[in-house]
């Protein structure tokens, strides 16, 4: 009965359409407080942050006062929100109405202090910077202000101390993708075109993404593929396995990019650094494959190719080997002296055979044999002997030509190996420089 009697006493002549002050020059001070309960979603594409907050308001209503002695020492009562005056405080960044539960009552004390506590699902616009995804930190603001009353009628203040609001994570559910770092608060006045000023209370919600999932699913597989690409350079360039290995890596990386394309945030503001990283890694794989194709083409010279030019020998086989510290440079070199000796020996035997068709070692033996044999036998046996010698000469020329082709192939193979080492070290230097650049950018961003 006391609660019912007090409620009727307070609301009997109450006018909820008027600001609750006895003197219109008195400013109504509304103290507000905010506690972040959960980060529901971060939409990078639409630049929308969805949070669930516990919001509290506190103000003084001069028409909701009573003497507790007249009402059984009752000092506090709950009244319907629809029955009393409530400040029109909104969030400027609102983009959609959230699914917030309706709290129909407020607490009123005997001094006229009104406390309005309610949970709100807030969908606000936020300028999201995804350049450092997945190591990004987002700073989104929630601006509370009166949409109608200027600062002379309705002023805002902070319910608690800023230090208590900043590090208050007592109700935050921190098991999701985002981690709450702190909540900053700031009061300021706002005016449009020299009109009356409005009071604003800004809360900056600073959150950080947990990067473990993206590191395991995005960065580590990409690093493993790049390491395998570098290891693939140790395959011999004169075998066809390196090209197929590089093509397999390139196809695998393409499939990997297709899979992670849905994971990367897509915005019109800019491209995240990890997207640039993937593109550059893809370009490095293409460069590696191109280099492999050139080296394989170089070491697999076909027939009728010229010898290695002298300037190439001086540049690659002499200077480059010293620069690259390649000591064993003669293992692919052809034995030109041995081939020349064999050719001169075969040519000498051929000329001797033409002068001495019977194969005599001494001229005296040939004279005795010529005197004993008839002239007819000499005439009959000379024709087959010349045919045999002609065939042997053809075989010798064929073998010399094939040996020359092998010498050319060995020369190009040696050039290909030296050039492969040179390009591999240049590629390795490019990869290291790229890694150091990314690490430096990330360190600078983190320190900033």
UniProtKB/TrEMBL annotation:
SUBUNIT field: Forms homopentameric as well as heteropentameric serotonin-activated cation-selective channel complexes with HTR3B or HTR3C or HTR3D or HTR3E. The homomeric complex is functional but exhibits low conductance with modified voltage dependence, and decreased agonist and antagonist affinity. Heteropentameric complexes display properties which resemble that of neuronal serotonin-activated channels in vivo. Interacts with RIC3.
Residues spanning the membrane: 212-235, 247-268, 274-296, 422-445
Alphabetically ordered keywords of this record: Cell membrane, Disulfide bond, Glycoprotein, Ion channel, Ion transport, Ligand-gated ion channel, Membrane, Postsynaptic cell membrane, Receptor, Signal, Synapse, Transmembrane, Transmembrane helix, Transport
Cell membrane found in the keyword field: yes
Residue ranges annotated for the Neurotransmitter-gated ion-channel ligand-binding domain, each copy included: 4-211
Function description: Forms serotonin (5-hydroxytryptamine/5-HT3)-activated cation-selective channel complexes, which when activated cause fast, depolarizing responses in neurons.
Main location: membrane
Pfam families: Neur_chan_LBD, Neur_chan_memb
Superkingdom per UniProt: Eukaryota
Location(s), subcellular: Postsynaptic cell membrane
GO molecular function, one term: transmembrane signaling receptor activity
Topology of the protein relative to the lipid bilayer: Multi-pass membrane protein
InterPro entries associated with the record: 5HT3_rcpt (IPR008132), 5HT3_rcpt_A (IPR008133), LGIC_TM_5-HT3 (IPR049944), Neur_chan_lig-bd (IPR006202), Neur_chan_lig-bd_sf (IPR036734), Neur_channel (IPR006201), Neuro-gated_channel_TM_sf (IPR036719), Neuro_actylchol_rec (IPR038050)
Family in the record: Belongs to the ligand-gated ion channel (TC 1.A.9) family. 5-hydroxytryptamine receptor (TC 1.A.9.2) subfamily. HTR3A sub-subfamily.
UniProt KW Signal keyword: yes
This protein's name: 5-hydroxytryptamine receptor 3A
Domain Neurotransmitter-gated ion-channel transmembrane: 218-437
Catalyzed reactions: K(+)(in) = K(+)(out); Ca(2+)(in) = Ca(2+)(out); Na(+)(in) = Na(+)(out); Mg(2+)(in) = Mg(2+)(out)
The organism of origin for this protein: Urocolius indicus
């Amino acid at each position: 009965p006391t609660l019912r009697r007090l409620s009727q006493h307070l609301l009997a002549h109450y006018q909820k359409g008027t600001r609750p002050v006895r003197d219109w020059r008195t400013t109504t001070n509304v103290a507000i407080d905010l506690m972040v309960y959960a980060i529901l979603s971060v939409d990078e594409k639409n630049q929308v942050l969805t949070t669930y907050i516990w919001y509290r308001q506190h103000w003084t209503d001069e028409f909701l006062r009573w003497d507790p002695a007249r009402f059984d020492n009752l000092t506090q009562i709950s009244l319907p929100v629809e029955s009393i005056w409530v400040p029109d405080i909104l969030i400027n960044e609102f983009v959609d109405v959230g699914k917030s539960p309706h709290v129909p009552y407020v607490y009123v004390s005997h001094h006229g202090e009104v406390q309005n506590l309610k949970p709100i699902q807030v969908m606000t616009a936020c300028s999201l910077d995804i350049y450092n995804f997945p190591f990004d930190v987002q700073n989104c603001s929630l601006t509370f202000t009166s949409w109608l009353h200027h600062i002379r009628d309705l002023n805002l203040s902070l319910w608690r101390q800023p230090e208590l609001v900043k590090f208050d994570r007592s109700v935050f559910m921190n098991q999701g993708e985002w981690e709450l770092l702190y909540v900053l608060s700031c009061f300021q006045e706002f005016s449009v075109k020299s009109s009356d000023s409005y009071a604003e209370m800004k809360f900056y919600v600073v959150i950080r993404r947990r990067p473990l999932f993206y590191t395991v699913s995005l960065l580590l597989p990409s690093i493993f593929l790049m390491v395998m690409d570098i290891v693939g350079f140790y395959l011999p360039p004169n075998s066809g396995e390196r090209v197929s290995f590089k093509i397999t890596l390139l196809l695998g990386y393409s499939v990997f990019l297709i899979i992670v394309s849905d994971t990367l945030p897509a915005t019109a503001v800019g491209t995240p650094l990890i997207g640039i990283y993937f593109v550059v890694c893809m370009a490095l794989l293409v460069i590696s494959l191109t280099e492999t194709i050139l080296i394989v083409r170089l070491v697999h010279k076909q027939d009728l190719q010229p010898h290695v030019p002298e300037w190439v020998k001086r540049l690659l086989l002499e200077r480059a080997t010293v620069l690259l510290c390649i000591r064993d440079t003669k293992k692919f070199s052809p034995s030109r002296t041995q081939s020349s000796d064999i050719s001169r020996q075969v040519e000498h035997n051929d000329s001797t055979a033409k002068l001495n068709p019977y194969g005599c070692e001494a001229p005296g033996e040939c004279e005795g044999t010529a005197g004993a044999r008839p002239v007819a036998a000499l005439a009959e046996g000379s024709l087959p002997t010349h045919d045999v010698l002609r065939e042997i000469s053809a075989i010798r020329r064929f073998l010399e030509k094939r040996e020359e082709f092998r010498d050319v192939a060995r020369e190009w193979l040696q050039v290909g190996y030296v050039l492969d080492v040179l390009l591999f070290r240049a590629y390795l230097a490019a990869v290291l420089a790229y890694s150091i650049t990314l690490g430096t950018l990330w360190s600078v961003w983190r320190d900033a």
